[in-house]
């Protein structure tokens, strides 16, 4: 029943109605003046909602779209993770769903997030289930999130499922942050190094070149090479920027539009020393964490595998998991399909086999996820410690090489004197 309802929630066609933010003032049942902010399609709908809540509206004004846009911030994955934890805490404390959404929405610091939460509250008040209300925002609530909430609503254990979702989101966001740190730190330093080098070649080296012309002496080969490079950058800087910008744009569009290109990138990334191992172990951790959460919620294994594939974060793993799902649907054991994929380490396969035999697959997958998350943590910390001296050496060679090239003629002139 829960599976059918989840499928219906995913496939239901939602009529898109433009909603606006309204500021309102009114009088509650105690005769006290109250004011607030709500999201809805029209002023009349807001007034109807307020009356249902026991508030007699005095004034309802649509907030300026320009003003709203100026205050909006992007909704990040961490915002969804925090929302999950807040809702889990509220529901566990016995707060009704609509009231919990009202409290969380009005107390959120991000106006965009607050507007979305209040929009979800509006849909729930209109008679939609919580899962279907979340499904109206597919950019932020994927099938996995919606399916788990739907299972919780149908089983009467929404607060328990929200707790599992909150834990899952917090764990996955933590592992993503670690992987992002491992990838962005060296890349950012290298970019800064190239920018500094470009500034030195464009602004500083020409000054020294003019000084060297007054010497009337032959310059060292290394100095000539640096000056030639500086002259090329001054003459063709627009071409260099165009090539760099075009390459970056082409890379972005290729990754966004071409699945084959993304598959190629994911395969290459997995083969990079150290970084590839971090990405591989994080994918194993994400697979087991997602499967554990879905299975603990009572979602059938075959249906859970589809959500696990979409949450894998790597096309190589995604395609392998879809193949595993097809094998499992024919009656094959999960541990055997994992073994046949050739992607999963023996320890993960054996733990899953034990889980299948003992009927505790969710617990075993959670233990595997904990292990590999700890592995990723340790590898990222070790990589950071290893990269710091290497980056310092790289910067020393690049910047020090330019400085040496500029001072070599001066040293040579001093020796001649």
UniProtKB/TrEMBL annotation:
Gene Ontology CC: plasma membrane
Protein name: Type II secretion system protein F
Annotated organism of origin: Solimonas fluminis
Keywords recorded for this protein, A-Z: Cell inner membrane, Cell membrane, Membrane, Transmembrane, Transmembrane helix, Transport
Family the UniProt entry places it in: Belongs to the GSP F family.
PROSITE patterns assigned to the protein according to its UniProt record, in alphabetical order: T2SP_F
Cell membrane in keyword set: yes
Transmembrane feature ranges: 183-205, 235-252, 391-411
InterPro entries: GspF/PilC, T2SS_GspF/T4SS_PilC_CS, T2SS_GspF_dom, T2SS_GspF_sf
Location(s), subcellular: Cell inner membrane
Principal location: membrane
Residue ranges constituting the Type II secretion system protein GspF domain according to the UniProt record: 83-206, 289-409
Pfam families, A to Z: T2SSF
GO biological process, one term: protein secretion by the type II secretion system
Gene3D superfamilies: Type II secretion system (T2SS), domain F
Domain of life of the organism encoding this protein: Bacteria
Membrane topology: Multi-pass membrane protein
């Amino acid at each position: 029943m829960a599976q059918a309802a989840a499928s219906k929630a995913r496939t239901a066609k939602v009529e898109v109605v433009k909603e606006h933010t309204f500021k309102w003032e009114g009088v509650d049942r105690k005769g006290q003046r109250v004011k607030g902010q709500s999201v809805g399609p029209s002023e009349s709908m807001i007034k109807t909602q307020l009356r249902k809540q026991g508030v007699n509206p005095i004034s309802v004004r649509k907030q300026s779209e320009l003003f709203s846009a100026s205050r909006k911030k992007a909704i990040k994955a961490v915002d969804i993770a925090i929302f999950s934890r807040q809702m889990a805490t509220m529901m566990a404390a016995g707060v009704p769903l609509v009231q919990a959404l009202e409290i969380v929405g009005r107390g959120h610091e991000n106006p965009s997030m607050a507007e979305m939460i209040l929009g979800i509250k509006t849909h729930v008040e209109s008679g939609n289930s919580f899962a279907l209300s979340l499904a109206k925002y597919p950019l932020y609530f994927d099938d996995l999130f919606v399916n788990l909430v739907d299972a919780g609503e149908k089983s009467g254990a929404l607060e328990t499922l929200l707790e599992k979702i909150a834990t899952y989101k917090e764990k996955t966001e933590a592992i993503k942050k670690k992987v992002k740190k491992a990838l962005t730190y060296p890349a950012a330093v290298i970019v800064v190094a190239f920018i500094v080098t470009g500034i030195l070649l464009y602004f500083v080296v020409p000054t020294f070149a003019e000084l060297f012309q007054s010497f009337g002496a032959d310059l060292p080969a290394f100095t000539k090479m640096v000056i030639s490079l500086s002259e090329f950058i001054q003459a063709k800087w627009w071409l260099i920027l165009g090539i760099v910008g075009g390459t970056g744009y082409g890379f972005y569009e290729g990754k966004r539009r071409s699945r084959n290109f993304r598959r190629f990138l994911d395969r290459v990334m997995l083969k990079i020393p150290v970084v590839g191992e971090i990405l591989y172990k994080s994918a194993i951790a994400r697979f087991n964490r997602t499967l554990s959460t879905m299975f603990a919620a009572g979602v059938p294994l075959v249906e859970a595998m589809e959500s696990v594939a979409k949450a894998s974060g790597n096309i190589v793993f995604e395609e392998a998991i879809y193949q595993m799902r097809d094998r499992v649907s024919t009656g094959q054991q999960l541990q055997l399909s994992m073994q046949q994929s050739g992607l999963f380490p023996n320890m993960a396969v054996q733990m899953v086999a034990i889980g299948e035999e003992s009927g505790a697959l969710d617990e075993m997958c959670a233990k595997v996820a904990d292990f590999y998350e700890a592995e990723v943590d340790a590898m990222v910390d070790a990589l950071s410690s290893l990269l710091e001296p290497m980056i310092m050496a790289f910067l020393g060679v690049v910047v020090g090489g330019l400085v040496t090239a500029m001072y070599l003629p001066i040293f040579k002139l001093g020796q001649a004197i």
